[in-house]
Design goal:
Length: 448
Amino acid sequence: MQAIPVIVVFDVGKTNKKLFVFDEQYRIVLERTARFTEITDEDGDACENLESLTQSVYDSLHEVFDRKDFRIKAVNVSAYGASLVYVDEHGKPLAPLYNYLKQYPAALQQGLYNKYGGQDEFLRQTASPALGSLNSGLQLYRLKAEQPAVFNAMQYALHLPQYISSLISGKLCSDITSIGCHTALWDFDQQAYHAWVKEEGLLGKLAPMLPSNKELPGRYGKHTFMAGTGLHDSSAALIPYLLQFPEPFVLISTGTWCISLNPFNDVPLSKEELAQDCLCYLSYEGRPVKASRLFAGNEHEQQVKRIAAHFSQHTLHYRSIPYDARIMAALKPGVFERRDLHAFSSDVEAYHQLVLDIAVQQYHSTQLVLKDRPVKRIFVDGGFGKNEIYMHLLASMFPDMEVYAATIPQATALGAALALHAAWNSQPLPEGIIELKRYQTGKQITLY
């Protein structure tokens, strides 16, 4: 059997750590999944088991390079953001991989804001809502204040995608998609590190920044290949859309959080937008991506449980309920968690009401990134893209736009593979890697 050219992608989520192997047509030819039990840091707070994750990367490399049916041309990484690994000059971690949900000292955070123009202006310039440890730059600031010995001993603070990349390439670097994601490190007005980063002595602790599509020489045993710098997962998931659709669009990426991403909106965030949970990412090309967030997946999960319990149904029943225009015509939007379920004649009616209430919230959230931008297409991927009721409603709420459910197998990992296309793949970019289903406008929904 002749070995086929492939790219290997490590796709590291908070829960699942996955490995994918793609062929030149970007078909998945191997997939592996692992989970690790969390450990605790010195304060007793739960955190990633960095040692197990590191060993898993090496074990996975050993497995794939040992196969005779693959000719590995490249390796890349996509991983969750807002997490820093503090390494010495040899790339060895010096501290735990602290959880981005770890409680942040309020006085330390407010003191930083006050020192650099006040909270509102600081957040506006860095396009970062005040999220405590989720602003990874503040994690580094805290380390300097609370653990100066570790701060002084470390060579660099690497975001998690770049740490994993360093295990593969041996190169310590930073990447714009990780630096630009609600870290409070980046000044979106100046398109450079914010002044506070240098003034507080953090700049020298950030590794040199390399382009997101930069290929680095890698070696594993006798094997040579090209390695990527690693990408923040939200930015990686956008890459297939950016490559396939040059005309302006908005992507609503749905899951626990439903995030509306507009890569064609570079208008700086306003104070009002920040207050409504808007933020900015940076694309793999370094362009601002305005985003708004809605905790809709979590709300859907909780309220489905409530409906199922009330009507003595199983929660799986609600995965495939078809859209009923007759039921929908009698409903009006509101806040579902405040609704009395006794007011509904059936669980199907209650579920239509839940999805209507969520879809109206989604409409308002998405409008925040659409403002004054010439967008004609909306793509919805993830769980809600498979929800017929949700998709019919969204099409009705945006009657002047083309609304599509988009299906991409493993979009985050695929994006990381596509970022290195020129470095490993001799074939042209394939068409049709995104499967689309258009939803036509029915009766327009009246929004209250």
